[in-house]
């Protein structure tokens, strides 16, 4: 069985079940998830928690190759088995979840040409390394800020900052942004997306197939919105008119079409 949850440095995939179950069986299950929801995983970075399982060098290399074929980077593998830990380190992967700024992660050399690429955990398509800072439990509501104040929970990701062009927020649950989402930025959520500000980038809610997911924003003027497999692109003229209107709106699926309605409190 595979469980996926958000982590401040990317996605954490936990493998549970009998420790002696063949690793290829686990990889087939993972491949089914990758094929079923390519838009959610594409361009992302993941860590494995294999618990008591012992993985061989071939198991690890097959894992890397499978993920790379779906444009996903494996940066860490956590195992209680000491031999597996040693093999993970030999492939220049991390064997634990640690602070982002201290963990530059290298893709293992599994390609036939011997090339080795470098990436940083939790950063998608942007040269700026971002570090999540915990938010105090009793913090009052604050105006949008440029600093990163990202807090993760079991069902959602809260980002109290502006999401800039080239940056990607990805979470298997809900995403809430207190701040603007600039053109060229991306929000990809397995659940709902709420933007307490202006949404101008791309937003994909229900990326794991949830057709009941919604996208809400105080100012809805995105280049592209997606819910599950449905997509709607706003024409430049439509974006300008929405910029002027500045009304809170909600996007949801109706008859396989994305509809935009006024975002109002339910009676």
Helix/strand class: alpha/beta
Q: What's the pLDDT, averaged over the residues?
A: 78
SS field, number of helical segments: 5
Tell me the CATH topology of the largest domain.
Alpha-Beta Plaits
CATH 4th-level superfamily of the largest domain = ACT domain
What coarse outline follows from CA principal-axis ratios?
elongated
Question: What is the annotated CATH architecture of the largest domain?
Answer: 2-Layer Sandwich
Supply Rg.
20 Å
What is the name of the CATH class of the largest domain?
Alpha Beta
- Uncertain regions: pLDDT < 50 for 5+ in a row? 99-154
User: How much helicity do the residues have?
Assistant: 10-25%
Q: What fraction of residues sit in β-strands?
A: 25-35%
Number of strands: 18
What is the topology, as strand order, of the major beta sheet?
Answer: 7-8-10-12-14-17-18
The CA-CA distance between the termini, in Å, is 41 Å
The main β sheet shows up as: 7 strands, mixed
Descriptive overview:
The chain has 267 residues and is α/β, with parallel strands linked by helices. It folds into two domains: 2-120, ACT domain (Alpha-Beta Plaits, 2-Layer Sandwich); 150-262, Pectate Lyase C-like (3 Solenoid), CATH 2.160.20.70. The chain contains five helices and 18 strands. The protein has a seven-stranded mixed sheet with strand order 7-8-10-12-14-17-18. The longest helix is centred in the first third of the chain and has 14 residues, at 23-36. The chain starts with a strand and ends in a 5-residue tail after the last strand. Mean pLDDT is 78; it is low at 99-154.
């Amino acid at each position: 069985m595979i469980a996926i949850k958000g982590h401040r440095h990317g996605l954490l995939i936990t493998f549970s079940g009998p420790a002696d179950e063949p690793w290829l069986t686990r990889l087939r299950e993972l491949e089914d998830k990758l094929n079923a929801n390519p838009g959610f995983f594409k361009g992302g970075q993941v860590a494995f928690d294999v618990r008591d399982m012992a993985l061989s060098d071939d198991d690890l290399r097959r894992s890397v190759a499978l993920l790379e074929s779906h444009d996903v980077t494996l940066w860490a593998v956590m195992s209680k088995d000491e031999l597996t830990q040693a093999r993970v380190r030999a492939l220049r992967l991390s064997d634990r979840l640690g602070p982002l700024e201290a963990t530059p992660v290298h893709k293992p050399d599994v390609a036939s040409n011997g090339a080795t690429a470098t990436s940083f955990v939790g950063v998608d398509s942007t040269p700026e390394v971002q570090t999540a800072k915990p938010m105090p439990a009793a913090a009052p509501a604050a105006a949008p800020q440029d600093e990163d104040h990202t807090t993760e929970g079991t069902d959602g990701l809260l980002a109290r900052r502006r999401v800039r062009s080239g940056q990607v927020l990805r979470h298997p649950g809900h995403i809430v942004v207190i701040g603007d989402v600039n053109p060229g930025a991306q929000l990809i959520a397995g659940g709902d997306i709420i933007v307490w500000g202006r949404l101008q980038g791309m937003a994909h809610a229900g990326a794991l197939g949830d057709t009941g997911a919604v996208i809400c924003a105080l100012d809805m003027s995105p280049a592209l919105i997606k819910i599950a497999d449905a997509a709607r692109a706003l024409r430049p003229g439509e974006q300008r008119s929405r910029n002027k209107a500045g009304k809170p709106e909600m996007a949801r699926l109706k008859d396989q079409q994305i509809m935009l309605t006024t975002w109002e409190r339910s009676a």
